[in-house]
Amino acid sequence: MVPTCKMCDKHLLGEHVEIHMFVGTIKKGISIDGYIKNDLLEPKSIYLRHEEISKEMKKRGFNHKSPLPKISFSSTTIKKHINHKVNKKKSYDDLLKRCKNCTKLKNNLFSID
Fold first, then answer.
1. Is 103:58 a contact under the CB 8 Å cutoff?
2. Which residue, 24, 93, 100, 113, has fewest beta-carbon neighbours within 10 Å?
């Protein structure tokens, strides 16, 4: 849930792949408890997030041709976690600690809250 403009190409594309993996997991009825526990997934925002990432990919000249399949938000896999919110500040801080390229994109006036 880090703003897409603050992510390097590697992390932008990586999150795009992860979103497709999350949807596949949900469609198969596999538990997403671990993703929630590790604060990696905000179920209600999955389609909006994919759209944000797709737009940023196109803006950077990447070719995006992978629409996100529909999932049921009433499935038992997702239902109990539907309102989970990712800690955006923590996610951004973690990213900056791990990636020098994302750190280069940091704007001192930027606020994650």
1. no
2. 113
Cβ atoms within 10 A of the Cβ of 23, count? 17
* Global pTM value: 0.86
| Helices 46-59 + 9-27 axis angle, to 10 | 150
Three-state SS letters, the chain: CCCHHHCCHHHHHHHHHHHHHHHHHHHCCCCCHHHHHCCCCCHHHHHHHHHHHHHHHHHCCCCCCCCCCCCCCCCHHHHCCCCCCCCHHHHHHHHHHHCHHHHHHCCCCCCCC
